[in-house]
């Protein structure tokens, strides 16, 4: 029963994505959600997300700790597939405001007596530096702190803190809501990119509209304050606390300690401040990444250096091949034979260069999956660069990636089957088996790893664990969308004409002469140049995934992706040409791993990031999660980059030997 609401939610997500794309096509401001205009006195409800920590990377439900609950019970708020996969659990909370109405000393509740088990869990969350994540009108709560005359921005606030052996909890919150006044006559202009139902005309006469306000900022200052339990026990939720609550350094009372058998009182206050920040700019505070100037200039410098090196390699490479071909075609047959023996080894493997490699089926399967992953990355990053998958839309990026991956199964099946037919000399029998393996190879590995990691998360009772109903949804999407589309692509690949080789393959394979150096050593070293194109960007992506920082420079990421494709193709071409020159005609797998070896360096970088940047990460479960997700990322990158190198080398070898005059 639990899976059907999720299935309906997924269908609505797909339809909603189409609607968002169509509606945002003419919008001036793409990132973010639609503007909501609230009249004075209207209710504003704060939502809560999962508790998170950079020390464990294990999210937990907000209500796994003894916090106050809403009077009408906890309700799951709107979630999409991406949010569920990321471990977000957005729920209702008892924090309620009235638009542009300041309130102070608002009492929430007294928790029941904390049992020994609850006390142990609460102390563990405090020691692990877990953060409480609140949201108002889709804006996460921001907390500002000062350190060495610098203002630091944090998303959320800590559950509590510890002094010596005593744990304290933040039980009083000071909210500041920044609002921008919307004059009634400008509602239609502002709402042009959104939904007209979000405007609230309250005037009685035509055109008489009460001005409303839009939320453009949400800040929180946590405070630990020891309430009078006897006085608060007589209060109901949202009633005013009888005495002032002063959290200033000068008037601060005793902190609220966490002790077994002692209840805790929770309260809050809220102040509304009019701001000049307009609604389209309200996410600027979240997108101001530390070291932004270094970030931009470092990426630009990396792009220029790599583009310069790639240009040199390309020019030298093209001049060398063209000169070799020109000299070869200008000679007579006897001179050509002599030149073959003395100069050019690549022409001696003409009868073996298109000999099918070992494990050719596996190569076709990996190339097909690589095309699917690469296409997903290009389309997703392109949509994100145009603002359709902004950080304001939680889970949209992951949902879009999954959607595009499913649809591009048709490209995977087509490429894999057509390549397999080419290697088999045009025989189309068995294309269903190849298509089926393409549809199951990469998703099967992902499901296997996710299942193992999910058992670890279930054992830790983390909200990061994928629910059983979601597993059923993912399996349904796999077998009902991805597999049929891959089979359809395979059908088209079987019907398409095979790629004709320009030369014939000899029956007896040519012996490869001894090499002065191991060829695989050169292949593994070739990944350093592609790694150089993305290692700076990789740092910001890793920080976004594991440290909760907002990543938004998708335009630069798209440029880096394009440059990575070019460099992978060039590196593989150079390595393939070098192997052919030493009469090594087994270039198929080497061309794949020449560019795919960049995954090795990315994995080593991930280990380096774990040791030096996530050194506070604690616990074997957290380390296993990090390694597991890193292996999945590296595996996907290997398939995508290896496919680039293989297809580029295949085109080059086909072009090279079709340009030579042979008898």
TrEMBL record:
Localization terms from the record: Endosome membrane; Golgi apparatus membrane
Keyword DNA-binding: no
Record key words, sorted: Endosome, Golgi apparatus, Membrane, Signal, Transmembrane, Transmembrane helix
Signal peptide: 1-27
GO BP terms: protein localization to membrane
Similarity-based family: Belongs to the nonaspanin (TM9SF) (TC 9.A.2) family.
Designated name of the protein: Transmembrane 9 superfamily member
Species in which this protein is naturally found: Araucaria cunninghamii (Hoop pine)
């Amino acid at each position: 029963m639990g899976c059907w609401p999720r299935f309906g939610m997924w269908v609505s997500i797909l339809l909603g994505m189409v609607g968002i794309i169509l509606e945002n096509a003419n919008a001036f401001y793409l990132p973010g959600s639609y503007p909501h205009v609230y009249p004075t006195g209207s209710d504003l409800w704060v939502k809560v997300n999962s508790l998170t920590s950079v020390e464990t990377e294990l999210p937990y439900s907000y209500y796994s700790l003894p916090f106050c609950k809403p009077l009408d019970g906890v309700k799951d708020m709107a979630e999409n597939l991406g949010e569920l996969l990321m471990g977000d659990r957005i729920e209702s909370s008892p924090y309620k405001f009235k638009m542009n109405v300041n309130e102070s000393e608002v009492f929430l509740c007294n928790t029941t007596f904390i049992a020994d088990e609850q006390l142990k869990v609460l102390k563990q969350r405090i020691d692990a530096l877990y953060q409480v994540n609140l949201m108002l009108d889709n804006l996460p709560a921001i907390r500002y702190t000062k350190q060495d005359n610098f203002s630091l921005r944090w998303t959320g606030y800590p559950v509590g803190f510890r002094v010596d052996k005593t744990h304290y909890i933040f039980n009083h919150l000071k909210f500041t809501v920044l609002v921008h006044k919307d004059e009634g006559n400008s509602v239609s202009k502002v709402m042009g990119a959104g939904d007209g139902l979000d405007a609230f005309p309250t005037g009685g006469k035509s055109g008489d509209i009460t001005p409303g306000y839009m939320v453009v900022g949400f800040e929180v200052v946590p405070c630990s304050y020891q309430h009078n339990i006897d006085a608060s026990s007589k209060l109901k939720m949202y009633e005013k606390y009888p005495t002032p609550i002063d959290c200033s350094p000068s008037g601060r009372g005793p902190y609220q300690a966490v002790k077994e058998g002692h209840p805790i009182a929770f309260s809050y206050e809220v102040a509304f401040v009019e701001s000049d920040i307009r609604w389209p700019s309200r996410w600027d505070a979240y997108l101001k990444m530390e070291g932004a100037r270094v970030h931009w200039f470092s990426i630009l410098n990396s792009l220029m250096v790599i583009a310069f090196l790639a240009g040199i390699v390309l020019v030298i490479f093209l001049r060398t091949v063209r000169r070799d071909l020109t000299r070869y075609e200008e000679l007579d047959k006897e001179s050509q034979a002599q030149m073959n023996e003395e100069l050019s080894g690549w022409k001696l493997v003409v009868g073996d260069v298109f000999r099918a490699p070992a494990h050719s089926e596996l190569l076709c399967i990996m190339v097909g999956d690589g095309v699917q992953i690469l296409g997903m990355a290009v389309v997703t990053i392109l949509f994100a660069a145009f603002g359709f998958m902004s950080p304001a839309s939680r889970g949209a990026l992951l949902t879009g990636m999954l959607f595009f991956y499913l649809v591009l199964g048709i490209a995977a099946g087509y490429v894999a089957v057509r390549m397999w037919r080419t290697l088999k000399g045009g025989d189309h029998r068995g294309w269903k088996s190849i298509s089926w393996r393409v549809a199951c190879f990469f998703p099967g590995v992902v499901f296997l790893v996710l299942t193992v990691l999910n058992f670890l998360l279930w054992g830790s009772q983390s909200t990061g664990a994928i629910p059983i109903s979601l597993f059923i949804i993912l399996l349904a999407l796999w077998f009902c969308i991805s597999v049929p589309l891959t089979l359809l692509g395979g059908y088209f690949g079987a019907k398409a004409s095979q790629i004709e080789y320009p030369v014939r393959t000899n029956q007896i394979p040519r012996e490869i002469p001894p090499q002065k150096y191991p060829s695989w050593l050169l292949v593994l070293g070739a990944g350093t140049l592609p790694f150089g194109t993305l290692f700076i960007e990789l740092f910001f992506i890793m920080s976004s995934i594991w440290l909760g920082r907002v990543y938004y420079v998708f335009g630069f990421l798209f440029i880096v992706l394009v440059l990575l494709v070019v460099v992978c193709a060039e590196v593989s071409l150079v390595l393939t040409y070098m192997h052919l020159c030493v009469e090594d005609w087994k270039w198929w797998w080497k061309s794949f791993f020449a560019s795919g070896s960049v995954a090795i360096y990315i994995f080593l970088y991930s280990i380096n990031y774990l040791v030096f940047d996530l050194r506070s990460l604690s616990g074997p479960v957290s380390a296993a999660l990090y390694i597991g997700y890193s292996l999945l990322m590296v595996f996907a990158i290997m398939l995508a980059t290896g496919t680039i190198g293989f297809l580029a080398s295949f085109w080059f070898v086909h072009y090279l030997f079709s340009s030579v005059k042979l008898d």
